[in-house]
Design a protein that fits this description.
The chain is α/β, with parallel strands linked by helices. It folds into 2 domains: 13-57, no CATH class; 71-187, no CATH class. 33% of the residues lie in helices and 17% in strands. Strands 3, 5, 7, 8 and 9 form a 5-stranded mixed beta sheet that branches. A two-stranded antiparallel sheet has the order 1-2. The chain has a two-stranded antiparallel sheet with strand order 4-6. Strand 1 and strand 2 form a beta hairpin. 21% of the residues are buried.
Length: 189
């Protein structure tokens, strides 16, 4: 007579470990449809994908610049790649768009829209500050954490080629330099 093996109940340690894994990644962004971006492997894969593009745009070392004055004295600009724009602006082309949209610092969240197809926008539509945290920046100005906000902020849409974005990036860089911006907050989608 053959004995049937019955499934043993998971131990408390196995069950809690599985719950931690599930809880940690159930709402996480997923790369290539399978790798949770919050995982060490997901972060490694993200760098592997992004760094070659970055290296083609920069000749030599990446030019990181330290702040030259305290944050409480800095003028800050917000730049998002979440497809954010004003409702009355033309939406970004969903199959690739290297252009940008200007968003004034006094824009209300009700004035903003999202046209981007590469991420789940459900939560961002409920609270646009997730991808364009303009209200949080206003709060930081009111609290004296940052000095001021630039008069204009910028939204970019979906573009698979960093090289095709260069003309728009250079134009935005010129505009923020002319505006006397000290710090750019880059918010990826």
């Amino acid at each position: 007579m053959k004995h049937r093996r019955t499934a043993r109940p998971a131990s408390v340690n196995e069950s809690s470990a599985q719950n931690r894994w599930t809880d940690r990644f159930k709402n996480s962004a997923v790369l290539f449809g399978i790798v949770p971006v919050g995982s060490a492997f997901g972060r490694w894969i993200s760098k592997l994908v992004a760094l070659p593009q970055l290296r083609t745009l920069v000749d030599g070392p990446i030019p990181w610049a330290p702040l030259s004055k305290p944050l409480a004295e800095c003028k800050v600009v917000l730049i998002s790649t979440g497809g954010v724009h004003l409702h009355h602006d033309s939406p970004f082309h969903i199959d690739g768009d290297a252009s940008y949209r200007v968003i004034p610092k006094n824009a209300r969240t009700a004035d903003l829209a999202i046209s981007h197809q590469a991420y789940d926008k459900t939560d961002a539509i409920r609270d646009i500050n997730l991808v364009f945290p303009i209200e949080r920046l206003r709060e930081l100005v009111a609290e004296g954490v940052i000095g001021s906000l630039a008069d204009e902020h910028y939204g970019f849409g979906l573009m698979g080629s960093a090289k095709k974005l260069l003309p728009s990036q250079k134009e935005v860089a010129k505009r923020i330099t002319e505006a006397g911006v000290d710090l750019a907050l880059l918010v990826p989608a």
